[in-house]
Fold this sequence. Notes:
Elements: E1 3-9, E2 13-20, E3 25-32, E4 36-38, E5 42-45, H1 47-61, E6 68-73, E7 79-81, E8 91-92, H2 100-110, H3 112-119, H4 128-138, H5 140-145, E9 148-150, H6 153-162, E10 166-168, H7 169-172, E11 178-179, E12 184-185, H8 188-193, E13 205-207, E14 211-215, H9 218-224, E15 231-234, H10 238-245, E16 255-258, E17 262-268, E18 279-282, E19 289-295, H11 300-309, H12 314-323, E20 330-332, E21 350-352, H13 360-382, E22 389-393, H14 400-410, E23 413-417, H15 423-435, E24 449-453, H16 457-485
Parallel strand pairs: 1-6, 6-15, 10-13, 16-22, 22-23
Antiparallel strand pairs: 1-2, 2-3, 4-5, 5-8, 7-9, 11-12, 14-15, 16-17, 17-19, 18-19, 20-21, 23-24
Helix pairs in contact: 1-6, 2-4, 10-15, 11-13, 12-13, 13-14, 14-16
Amino acid sequence: MAYWLAFDIGTTGTKAALLDSDGRAIRSAYRDYSTHSGDGGVMEQDARQWWVAACEAAREVEAGAIEGIVLTGQMQDVILIDTQGEPTYPVILYSDSRAVREAGAIQAAMGVDQLIALTGNAQEAGSLLAKLVWLQSNQPHALERASHLLTGAADYIAFKLTGVAATDTTTASTTGLMALESRAWLQPDLLKVAGLESSGRLFPRLVAGGTRIGSAHETGAAAFGVPAGTPVYLGPGDAGAATLGAGGGAPGTPYAYIGTSGWVAFTGEQRSDPASGAFNLAHPLPGQVICVAPLLTASGNLDWIKRVTGAESHAGMIEAAVQAPPSNLLYLPYLNGERSPFSDPFARGAFIGLNSSHNQVDLTRAVLEGVAFAYRHALDSLISTPVSRLILTGGGTRSAGWNQLIADVIGVDVAIADDASNVGLRGALLAAQVGRGERSSYRLDTIPVSASQRPTNALYESYTRKYGWFREAYRSLKNLFGQMSTS
């Protein structure tokens, strides 16, 4: 039996798993790391912590001799490194919204419609176009000292293993720096319009997700506890890998990923309309697009409510909340702004309808419902034809009670992907196997599920009324959020 060492370099931590050739996890390990948040929408991490976490998790897994290493992880980051792989500036995360002013200037200079036509997506504060302009104005030395710009967390681990600077096209399509149709970096004349002509020298090699980019050199192999020369494959970024692993690699099967951040997605042959809040990501197969409605903060809201309430565990907190009766208390889950089905870096979380009878359990239930409403909102914006079944993946699916609440809120059957927390690893491996010629397509013959849950009609009708309040609440508070951001 051939085994693979797979990594998902996520927002809150890194998972490593030893997988068999069918994508089943034999054993796994996890290490977390910190995120720095600051005024003005600052969200940063230290790439060196990613490497430490990956090395520790790899050694715990004890992979030994393997077929290869495959990597996926968070996308749309600004990762500036020197020739030795040392960061010249903290990683600016996908959720960072500091570059609002710069985004506006780029839109004015390049034209909103032209940007969408070229890149497939609207380019707001999260775009690397805007973040690089911010760096030029505020931290020019970080750019001057850098030798490479990497755009996904998996890219950094791959560089530390192989010395090769590369980015997969799925990840690159989140940045605003890649033309979606040609799958090439923007031409120098366009970069010049944005004032970024000097940044082109930093761009890494572009590859389809699943491509072998090199082999683990002696230092990297020793750090992971694998033989030197082990092949290293750069899988699609996390949304792409999860799409493949959830059975959505071929057109037609929608699914939802529930992690710290989240999304609803499917593979299509035509772009989605960015005006609906959707993102268009490059599928590893040319001519196909992964249509994604991304949520900046999904189960990250549960991490927040657990911290502020002092709950002992996520499981106990969620179980108590789903056993409580619904109330009229409403929660908006936009702790770090939102990307879909609207783009608003100034949106924030809010409880609406608090009264003196509400307690910790009521607050937690409102948070669970608010996240579920956000998924319903994203699904409504992404797919005009009603769906009858939604596959759920990601670590947030561990609670059967929350899965049922999601079914009740959205009003469709939900199917929990088998080994849901490892679906991204499975998808990254699938991409590598296609890249090696061991598989002929990205379609899964069967989509393994561990459980299915049907909506409760009476609750769905009640939640539909509350969903209307949810959508109205953001519209009512939008201007206030903007005013608060400038004070």
